[in-house]
Amino acid sequence: MRRSLLVVSLVLSTFCFSFQAWGSEDQPFEQIVRRWSAIFSEQQASSASSSNQTSAPFFETSVASTFVLLPTTSPRLRDLSPETDGPRTKGILAKTTWLKGTFVTETEIANSSGGAGWLQSKIPGDNRIDASTRMVRLGLTGTQGPLRYGLTYRTAGQGFLNAPDQAGREIWGEWKASCVTIRSAIGQLWNNVAEETTRPRLEQIYGRMGLTLSRPSWPELSVTYAHNSLSSALEPLGIVPQRTLSHTLEGAMAYQSLRWNIRLASSYALASDQLRSGAESNIRMQLLSASFRPLNTVTIAPMLAYREEIQDWSGVRIDGPSAALVLHYKQSHRLLISAMGNYASSRSNDRLIDTENLGGKGTLTWDLQESSKWNALIAIEAGYNRLMNRVTPSADMEDISGLVRLVLAAL
C-alpha cells in the first residue's frame, strides 16, 4: 500500500512540477531550464549537507531542453521550407530518480513549429503558443530485480508534427532472466484530442504479450500475441460508425553480426467487423529486412514485404507486395552518396483496387572547405515519384524534383 501511494505521489509531483516549469509562453526555454536546474541543485545540496554524507539522496532531478529537427517527408519542392523555418520541435524534459534508481519519472512538454505552413501570416509581436501544437508526456519506470514495469501517458494536439492529434496511455511490465524475456502491455489510444464535434473519434484498446529468446552468437527468436479493439465515438451525422476486433500472432527471427544483420517476420491476423455480424477477414504478412556492409564505406539495406488480405464475407482478395533498397557510400568524411528506391502495389480480385507507387531519391553531399572557423557544405538532391491508379486514371500523379543546398556555418 505504501509503494502504491508513493508511485501516485511521484507522478503527481512530477506533473505539477512540469507545468510550473513551463512558465509563461513568452519565456525562452533556456532560461526556464537554467532556473529550475539551479533550484533543484540548491535543494539537493542542502539535503545532502543536512543528512549523512554516506547515504544517497532521496531523489535526484535533472532538467534539460529538447530540440528535434524533423526530416522532410514530402518529395515536392512546393512543400519545402527554408532551413531556418524547417519542421522542428522544442521543449523541456524533467527526469527524477527516486530511491537509488528504484523509480524514475519523466515529464516532457514540447511545441512544434515550422514546416509547410511557414508562409502563413502571423500578427507581428504575437509570440503566443498555439495549444494544438503542444505535446505533453508523462512516464514512470520501476525496477525490482529482474522485473521492470512502468506506465506512460502522452497527448499531442492536431498541429504537433510528431504523431499529431493522438493521445494514449499504457501500463507495461517486463521480466528478464538469462536468455528469456517476457513483456506484456495494455493500453488505450484515441484521436480527435480536442473533441471536435465535426470529426469522429477512433478509440483503440489493446493488449500485447511477447516472449523473446536471445543468446550471444545465436539468432534471436520472438513470438508476440496482440489483441486490439477499435470503435468510433463522437460520430457526427453522415459518418459511418466502426466496430472491429482483431487478434494477431507474429513470429520473428533476427541475427546480427559485425558486417550484416537480417530479420525475418511473419504474422497472421484475424479481424472481425462487429457491425457486420462478426464478418471476418484474414490478413497474412511476411517481411524480410537486412543490412550489409561489404566494405567499410558501403552499406546496403534491402527490404521485401508481402501482404495478403482475404475477406470471407465478400470473397475479395487484396494483394500488396512492396520492396525498398537503400545504398550509402561514404568515400571519405567529405563525400557521401546516398540512393534509395521503393515500390508498392495493391490489387484486388474484384478490380476495384489497382494502384502502384514507384519512387526514388539520390543525394550527393560534399564538404567543400575545411576550416577551423567555418564550414562550407553543398548537397545535390534529385527525386522521382509516380502514383498510378488504374481504376481512377485521373488520380495518377508524377513528380520530378531537384534541389541544391548550400550551407555556410561558423564553427
Q: Any overview of this molecule?
A:
The protein is mainly β and 411 residues long. It folds into three domains: 1-73 and 83-117 and 130-164, no CATH class; 170-312; 316-411. It contains two helices and 18 strands. It has helices at 2-22, 29-50, and strands at residues 59-69, 88-98, 103-113, 134-144, 147-156, 166-177, 180-191, 201-213, 220-233, 243-256, 260-273, 279-295, 298-311, 317-332, 335-348, 354-369, 374-389, 397-410. It has an 18-stranded antiparallel sheet. Mean pLDDT is 83; it is low at 1-27.
Strand and helix layout:
Blueprint: H1 2-22, H2 29-50, E1 59-69, E2 88-98, E3 103-113, E4 134-144, E5 147-156, E6 166-177, E7 180-191, E8 201-213, E9 220-233, E10 243-256, E11 260-273, E12 279-295, E13 298-311, E14 317-332, E15 335-348, E16 354-369, E17 374-389, E18 397-410
Antiparallel strand pairs: 1-2, 2-3, 3-4, 4-5, 5-6, 6-7, 7-8, 8-9, 9-10, 10-11, 11-12, 12-13, 13-14, 14-15, 15-16, 16-17, 17-18
What's the rounded overall pLDDT mean?
Answer: 83
Q: Could you name the ranges where pLDDT drops below 50 across 5 or more consecutive residues?
A: 1-27
- How would a textbook summarize the main sheet? 18 strands, antiparallel
Strand residue content: over 45%
Q: Helix count?
A: 2
Query: Structural class given helices, strands, pairing?
Result: mainly beta
State the domain count: 3
User: What is the helix fraction of residues, given as a range?
Assistant: 10-25%
Per DSSP E runs of 2 or more residues, the count of β-strands stands at 18
Q: What is the 3D form? A: globular
The value of Rg in angstroms is 26 Å
Order of helices and strands: HHEEEEEEEEEEEEEEEEEE
Report how far the terminal alpha carbons are from each other.
55 Å
